[in-house]
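Lecture 7 notes: from sequence to structure.
We start with the chain below.
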Amino acid sequence: MTAPVIGVLALQGDVREHLVALAAVDAVAGPVRRPEELAEVDGLVIPGGESTTISKLAVLFGLMEPLRTRVRAGMPVYGTCAGMIMLADKILDPRSGQETVGGIDMIVRRNAFGRQNESFEAAVEVEGIAGDPVQGVFIRAPWVESVGASAEVLAEHDGHIVAVRQGRALATAFHPELTGDHRVHRLFADMVRANRRDESL
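Predicted structure tokens for the same chain:
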């Protein structure tokens, strides 16, 4: 089977770092800014940044509805930090006019771990990731207040949920793309490969 094609939503945030991490796990990675580019990928990463800005730009670029349609149809998607907020079915404290793509039955609190100057790193045990804990980089990070019955909690930090999976959707409050440890990206790439196998049957 050919390498999976995984896009990175390139409206704002740490796009380049995700592209590097995806290439390191043998995926064909490229930026996605337009609906026609979204249509060409097998899976998508929604990076960190500022969730309100990403939401507004997704609407402006005509990507919000195509994103919702593909996620509802089962396209694998992975959101980090602001990307986690974008994948939440509900935000506890949304900014005015802020929209989400949805896809994970969870309620997320924005900037829950504090402001930029309160950013930190911590070792996080992530279910499904073998070996040592993942080094999580938390930058103005959200946390998950609660999940529905369909969502699986993969990791917690300091009593708060920081990694969740629901079907083909994955989300982390932290930034694994900033550490050089590509195991979370490999997990996502494997999800994309499994989905392609299922679709080919």
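Points to note: The first helix runs from residue 15 to 24. Helices lie at 15-24, 35-38, 51-60, 64-72, 82-87, 183-200.
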